[in-house]
Write a structure and sequence with these properties.
The complex is a heterotrimer of chains A (275), B (271) and C (329). Chain A has 275 residues and is mainly alpha-helical. Chain A is built from 13 helices and no strands. In chain A, helix 9 runs parallel beside helix 11. In chain B, 77% of the residues lie in helices and 0% in strands. The longest helix of chain B is centred in the C-terminal third of the chain and has 37 residues. The relative contact order of chain B is 0.14. Chain C is built from 11 helices and 13 strands. Chain C has 2 domains: 213 residues, P-loop containing nucleotide triphosphate hydrolases (Rossmann fold); 61 residues, Malonyl-CoA ACP transacylase, ACP-binding (Alpha-Beta Plaits), CATH 3.30.70.250. Chain C has 329 residues and is an alpha/beta fold. Chain C has a 6-stranded mixed sheet with strand order 5-6-7-3-8-9, with helices on both faces. Chain C has a 4-stranded antiparallel sheet with strand order 11-12-10-13, covered by helices on one side. Chain C has a 3-stranded antiparallel sheet with strand order 2-1-4, covered by helices on one side. The chains are: A mainly alpha (275), B mainly alpha (271), C alpha/beta (329). At the A-B interface, helix 2, helix 9 and helix 10 of A face helix 2 and helix 8 of B.
Amino acid sequence: MFQLMGADMHQIRRVFSYLGLTLEVTKLSILSAMEYRVSFLTQVVGMIINDLGLVLVWLIFFQKFTSVNGWGFPEMALLFAISTVNHSLLMIFARGAHHLGRFIARGELDYFLSYPKNVLWHACVSKTDISSIGDLIFGLGIFFLFGQPTFEKFIAFLGISIVTALIIFNFNVITQSLTFYFGNFEEAAEQMHHALLGLALYPQTSFYGGLKIVTLTVLPAFFIAAVPVQILQGFNLSLWLTLLVFWLTTSLLAVFVFQKGLRRYESGSLINVHL
Amino acid sequence: MKRSFLKETLKYLEVAKVNYLNTSVYTVNLISRSVLVVVRIWAFTQLYQVAFAASRSTEIGGLTVPMVIWILMMTQSFQSSTRPHVSQLIDEEVKSGTLAYMVNRPYSYALFHYFGYLGRTFSSLWVNLAIGSLVSLALVGLIDFNWWGLLFGLGLLIFGVTLNFLIYLIIGLTAFWVEDTSAFTWIYSKGQLVFGGLILPLALFPENLLRIAEILPFSQLFYSAARVVVDFDLSLFWHYALIQIAWLAFFGLIAYQMFQRGIKNVSINGG
Amino acid sequence: MNKPIIEVKNLRKTFKIKQKNPGFFGGFSSVFKPDYKVVDAVDNISFSVDEGELLAFIGPNGAGKSTTIKILTGILYPTSGFINVLGFNPSKERQKLAYYIGSVFGQKPQLWYHLPPMDTYNLFSRIYEMESKKFRERLKFLTDTFEIEDLLKTPVRKLSLGQRMRCEIVAALLHRPKIIFLDEPTIGLDVIAKKRIRETIKYLNEEERVTIFLTSHDAGDIETLAKRTIVINQGMLIFDDSTEELKKNFIKTKIIELVLEGPTDDFRFPGGKIIEKSKYDLKIELDISRMTIEKLLNYAVENFDIKDINIFDPPMEEIISAIYQKQAN
């Protein structure tokens, strides 16, 4: 019994140690970027302007069409708030997930494999997207402007953003890890990422039939867009559970696909063999 | 020595061909791009069917749902074909200093990039259009095409693709003066997203916004061509063509000026 | 001593290379029905390394050097064979092993490029879970030994190549590794920086008793540092003996390049073989067991005006073919 508790404590300490290191590495990345202040600011401000553009499209859209199966501009605003915040969390803390395919194809995992830490974790936290800080500011701004915020709602908003960020993270790990198996899958994984984000940014109520099945499976926009908006509009335990179960399932799948693929990792050696 | 016009042209066509072939090699990439276009068209079809039904109309701004879908299929296909952004390539060449010695090669720097860009664009354009058309056909059926529309639309497309190139060239050349050009690239691509008819065709805009959007360069890249193909109207063609020519002249001049000044910078710094 | 800390038996690693048909439809068919070619990168290698050894591991490009090192450090999974490093099986216990080994890859820096080395060192102390007091002591010791005190707060991008390499080596030593893998540590450095790096490597081995596994293209690195050398070629181990033995038996020649003021036509030196000759430029191969470089240079100085002199070791390929020849006899 005590032994069991001891093991649990050990696990918990491990998780915290990884979280601490994640913050440390991200801090170094941001400090690195701050060495070039002008560029840092252009990226952050550029991204905010970029996001405003997206909102503008839907403002114009809902001038002409008042609603899409019950979705209007308020729902879209919530959707933008969640999508920009979860995406920015992912890109600030784990942008490497988006580069896994490249790391794999170019043999750059070697670097992470030489440290006594989990490879997947290390590769993913190794990169930070500075412009995403702009996304984060924008998303929070939209939430406070259009989200009719209360304290409880804000906590729910943060919780949902983190869980959905982890779901997109899993999606990225799975698609990018296919590079282990197919050799050249980086661009395809990139396009799948865009396809997912694309689907997640349309009014979710318009999908039916085959496309609905797609958004529930291969490109799980339903879980990162439709469910979160619904939860924010009114607390719903079963939806929360749905979200958590989906997150857990994709996590297991992501770890499986990556670990299995790692055994086939060829490093840069293939390039050497060719010489 | 007199330069032969024919030889010059062949040289640039060769550049286009090499780029065309180089892009075609990456089959998985080409297919995955098209898959993205397919997913988008599918989503648009459902979105606009629902939205049109909700507003109880079959035609808005002169467009029916199938026309909207064909327009979006084309604008999405055109835009997705122009990747990777030329601005990125030029930006890298400016920063790495490659540009400095490329200008001494026996070709025009701008034309070299222009034809390379055309080659890459057309290698994925036809795949995108073929797959996109099949999907549109399956989703919303054929619309009333007009041969004149196709012909004049092609003309507008060539102008539009060129205009897109000039703007990317300018963004790339700003690297002479600015550390980081990627922010300009995003803002430009968001301009396309809002006013370029990539999600919402301009014809569905409120009247006064439509007037402004049509004059902006963003709508003249890919949307104007798609619009004329779907529903041919000679006066609309001339309207768009004139706007395009004006922008081409304007951006052409700016690009030329920037290039000249940038080169001077290079020879001072690199001397 | 004399306790093996690296043991490798019948190690094998094969790669499958996808063959691609040309053109658009060729690309299509290779997506659905790929053809593979199997390549043996490492082919049945066995060796062991004792604690405190300084071993050179050499061979031409693509011989399987880096594949072997990557398997020893757990980066790559072996196809078959037995491996034991410090009592661990690298492919199963990579993370545990990583606490005890360090690696420096000349072409793949570990230091954060835009930040001062100190930031990387702090991060490493956390990654290797070092106690902060022990970390500070260790860092003080290393900064003194490697004389990098003044460099700690300068962004890495502003350091010279030699300074950077010293800081890289410190990064690899912070956690007191028992084995260090050094891959091309002197690549791209000038003569003085090379000398300094070699001294530090020697110091590590002799004073700190660290086992060192060195790969290099630079014959100078190997001659001055390694007591034992392993040569591999096309994935197979073809030589494993003292460096002295290798030099005595297989590196018998030097190549001397002379650039003269005048024409080279009258250059006649009986003890050497002219292998390349242009108007002012000569390359002479010298068998150093029979003739000294000094004699050649004396002859040259007496009879010609010399503009430039270069001395080279014979290329790796030549050493390897000499080894094969010996084995055939």
